Amino acid sequence: MTIKWSDGDQHFRSRLVQVQNSTKTSSSSTNSTTFSDTGLSRSIAMSNASNAVLVLCNGMCRVDNSGNTGYYEAEGQARILRGSTHLRSQSIGFRNSTAGGKNLFTQFSFGFIDTPGSGTHTYKLQFGGGGSTFKIYVADGTFYHNAGGVTPSCDLTLIEFDT
Question: Cβ contacts of residue 73 below 8 Å, gap of 6+?
Fold first, then answer.
């Protein structure tokens, strides 16, 4: 693709082919040490086996250790899978200098390029790794609604482009 400017042409080697997007606005939580689905997933049918996919995922989350005030930390992980293949992960959590039930409200974000090949591929967000009294939530509105009109969400966007 070429864009004509007054001071010259700018050439781009890639072209956007398609965009697929999903949004999750209902809360999910887990305290499992193993990973489970959050309910956020999206499929993309590749138009060409040599094309690539820009995977973007972001959202609001909360980690909580209020179930056991003897711990100074709460942590978990969010990860992106294509099918059953783990592609990227991110730790989410906190450590305190004193005990006491605490919550951390934060955002997470993934952005990377994948080359899945031909066919239809499903990407999904999973979370886990908390365990015992630690809990991790995604798209959780426990305290956000007090700010007025805020609806926490998680988004997964897949952008196919030719290479």
Answer: 65, 93, 94, 95, 96, 134
* pLDDT number for residue 19: 95
Nearest to 129 by CA among 92, 84, 80: 92
Q: How far is CA 107 from the centre of its chain?
A: 9
Report the 10 Å Cβ neighbour count for 1.
10
pLDDT tens profile 53-75:
999 999 888 777 766 656 566 67
Distance CA 145, CA 67 (A): 22
- CA-based angle 85:155:47, to the nearest 5? 60
- The 10s digit of each residue's pLDDT in 84-102 is 999 998 877 766 656 555 6
What does the pLDDT read at residue 133?
64
Neighbours of 67 (CB within 10 A): 14
Tokens of 6: 């007054």
Query: One-letter amino acid identity for 152?
Result: P
Phi, psi of 147, deg, nearest 5: -80, -15
